[in-house]
């Protein structure tokens, strides 16, 4: 049962901590009638504290899907032993999923490497033909890109141009060689660790600075990591990179493999923000050269990343953002559990960014 915890409940907080947060939230915030409408607007620190407690409160509610009457059982005799066993299962799941994500990401990276090498060989053959014809005397030596070790993260990370580009936030111009060098040497003026907008999370890995939510959490790589963790590694085989036009799910095949799917074991029938956040953490980590599962690496805090994505879904800034989050979850569920014949079947393709929502609000007020 503990293996379900990071996959649907919480990743970085232990079970004792979320219970403390659950109690604190109930004592301080659950009775809305006690709030004073004339009280001053809460400070950023107060809002952050409330949101932290709220995440823990939601985590305990999610634990009820893992262990029925979790709070009662945790407080009874034998509760500590139960929590200890659950924590062991959670750690085991994180280790297993780290290895699975490393392999699927390595496989996808090598698909790209092979395509690039095929093009380089074609270009070299064409250049060789021109030399033989005498139309040119210059022939650049053929340089092929080495493939990645799919079972190890060695050779990945910021120092590798391919994985570095995927890790780099969209706000930073990785294509500028001077900026790229600054990111690699971790120049504080180009802090890749300060943003949750890594290109690996975006559809087609394209970031629009004017619409930062456009395509966010809709990348092919993220879908592949999610499939590997929550359905099965085989479900990620031969998937189209066109995330907007996927074939309908094979109902017979899905039925036959139901027992093997992690999502079914942990009673997850639709995609949740917490499960996306967990997959995102594993994708980002799999692109680094970290030797093991860690909470932070190269200054990048994975707890902060998980919180950011969870809050994207659970704590939207306004009604438009709430609608956007709901549509994005539907987009995900269509692709993971339902299947879709075309992009028009998913309302997620109509999503707007937070910035667009603000513009709409201002226009309506003018």
Automatic annotation (TrEMBL):
Region feature Disordered, mapped onto this chain: 31-51, 236-256
Stored Pfam families: DUF6698 (PF20414)
Biased composition (Acidic residues): 32-47
The protein, known as: Uncharacterized protein
